[in-house]
Amino acid sequence: MANPKILEQKQQIIDEIKENVQNANSVVLFDYRGLTDEEIKELKSELRKVDSRYKVYKNTLILRAMHDLNVSIDEHLNGPTAVAFSNDQIAPIKVLSDFMKTHKVVTLKVGLVDNEITNTETLEKLANIPSRDGLLTMLAGGMMAIPKDLAICLDLYAKKLEENN
Asked: Could you tell me if 123 and 163 lie in one domain?
């Protein structure tokens, strides 16, 4: 029989995973095998910049926590697994996607975005969405184009009326 102290420690970790998943809008599981300590520090630093957390857990503990939350990701828990948690739905996905461009050993496994299981194809699509600031800039540009075009049209119309008089 397992040592009660060890079981209690494992349960604390399971509870920590559950709490992190419940409090996060985005959870990304990825394979980090092949990264050096320096590269892991670099990744953690990049994730911290977007207010995300990085943690490595045993697959069995992740599995138990996910089962408690009624989330089925069993088939994605092969090999070492790191988890990124964030309140932002897109930020950790973007950071990991950008990091993967220079560190080919990192691979995305699965994600939970707003408590929905998200496969790697969808994660890649989400990574290509512009940032919030970028989207707001695009919106402002679109909104400014309408009055600008109206002003040009009115100016041309006014010049045409002056020519006719």
From this structure: no
Q: What is the pLDDT of residue 120?
A: 85
Residue that the structure tokens 């948690």 belong to? 85
Over residues 11-55, the pLDDT tens digits come to 999 899 999 988 888 999 999 888 889 999 999 999 999 999 989
Number of H helices, E strands in the chain: 6, 5
Q: Do 99 and 138 share a domain, yes or no?
A: no
Judgement on whether residues 101 and 148 belong to the same structural domain of the protein: no
Q: DSSP string covering 138-159, please? A: HHHHHHHHHHHHHHHHHHHHHH
For the chain, give the number of residues: 165
Find tokens 């496994």 and name the residue. 109
Instruction: Please indicate, yes or no, whether residues 68 and 28 belong to a single structural domain of this protein.
Output: yes
Q: Do 28 and 101 fall into the same domain? A: yes
CA atoms within 13 Å, Cβ hemisphere of 100? 17
Q: Count of alpha carbons within 13 Å of 80, Cβ hemisphere only?
A: 11
How do residues 116-157 score in pLDDT, each as one tens digit?
A: 888 888 888 888 887 777 888 888 888 888 888 888 888 888
